[in-house]
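hi! just following up on the protien thing from before. the input was this:
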Amino acid sequence: MKSRGIEAFTRKVTTTASHLVGPSSDPSGNHYHNAMAQVHKQLKKPGIQRGMFTMARTTPTDLVRSKFSTAEIQSRALSYLPDEMLQHLPENDNAYSLFQGFQASFPELTHDGKKHRRRMSRGRKMLEETPTNPDSPHHLHKLKKERSSLMHELEMLGIRKNMASSEIREIDNKIANLAGMRRIILERLAGLEQEEALLEHDIVDMEGRIEDAQALVDEAESIAAAVDTPNKSDDDDLVTDQDADEFMSKSIYEKLPSASSTPSKRRHKTMKRKTMPILHEHFEPGSMIREIKAHADNITTLDFDVPFGTMVSASLDDDVKVWDLNAGRCIGVLEGHTASVRALQVEDNILATGSMDATIRLWDLSRAHYDPQGSQFGRDDEDDDGMAFENPDDQPVDPPEGSMADCPLFTLESHVDEITALHFRGDVLVSGSADKTLRQWDLVKGRCVQTLDVMWAAAQASVSIGTGEGTWRQTNRPAIQSADFVGALQVFESALACGTADGMVRLWDLRSGQVHRSLVGHTGPVTCLQFDDVHLVTGSLDRSIRIWDLRTGSIFDAYAYDNPVTSMMFDSRRIVSAAGEDVVKVYDKMESRQWDCGAGITETDTGRTPAIVERVRIKDGYLIEGRRDGIIGAWAC
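and the predicted 3d structure came back as:
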């Protein structure tokens, strides 16, 4: 049809509609007249005319005479879909059409549909209530109609079931796509944290160089000032009688420093991390992050500073190793102790180790020459490029010789038996030994400032109280030779908590050196403890974990396991413990539930039997566990 023919046809339609809805017609047709007047200009467009008369299933006369509303007339007149769009409809493998899906779902959304369903249900139940003649054609017609209605409803239910199944598959596809996107973003986050670690290491290295340069400048200025100062006369070099008397009046311990009890010329400096890793927070709880074959014998103690940071482990093989948790590589081996290390603590870059040789050694891990991050700032050799980012399945890479040679700070020697527990905060360190004493150390001066005798304190408490509550008491369980006399301790300013082999937990005041409270409850040696501002949590060989209220001294909560508890630690949400199994016992304080985490859960399908977990540490949901076979695992908890 040509354009002129279309325009002539349009004028005829408009004229016919004007006569039909004119003033002489029924007044009820005014809204049709108004609607057509509004779209009169649009009807002159040939494309809209073709679309309207092609898609409309009624003639123009029927369109005008029908009881359509103004909005519907406008919609039908202006709706237009080009043929190109209709030819390129997306393919769909559904067995039903959009109209069928709408027809199946529409009764659910209308009041009439709900009434219809109720009526049909009630009709099916009361089908035979009205008496009818079974031989009559009316009864047969009614039964067929009822069957058709039931078949239709069954068909609609099948369509709705297929729709629900399609929605589930679509949701599964979306979940899979989101999981893939999540993995990509996790890898991006891991890369950002690696770059952050590299940059922070370079910043620390730069700060160290600045400090060394500043020290050289200060030394040069002092030498220049000494040269400008006139020399003293010979009379000033003579020792007078007053100086001799003053020298003799001073204590010999102040005049003759001991090399073993004084710190080195280089004082230790605590270096706080500027950033904290958050990658482990997005892992599924109970998922393994890394597994390290660290030692050849039982892990005796371990600790780390921050998630994906620096870890130090000790074993019965007499090795003390420093690890980079981000790369799973050994930074170096600390040499100096002559026996196995039983206790250690890592705080920022400072490490304290207590050994069976009755000595305590302090180390500065920031002085290590080995760079696990692969940074090349200020380095001439390129032998260790990228060692931190090698394949974790490769064979372990031995650290370079002498990488930790500059890490030792000084040694503390006063105990006469093996060190079984230690803890330091700031410049105060407290150690417990098999010689039945606790010693307080000043890390600035590098010497012991107070000795606490546990047996004497227990005897004093029994005399002052007048009861056997504070005395040293034997536990109800048989004596365990491997139990340490001082199992665990923690210090905070002047407060000290100590757990001993008699099952008692004693709270000390370091200002007076006295025990001001004893917590009675355990029936076996206390092996681990930790406290915050409200609660104190203790673990014992009596197979129980007890939570104490420090404000009242009473038990707040307690729970037991099947085996003795050898290690325990808690963070803001979880209490983790090693209880003689191949898994770590986790208690969620928020949800008050117990669950297991470790190789004993993940390796059940492989047929392997992991070793017993001996030591656990957790910080911000990042869990480290050490086993009897020398393997250390890192987990998201």
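Residues 137-228 form the longest helix (92 residues).
The chain is about 35% helix and 25% strand.
cheers
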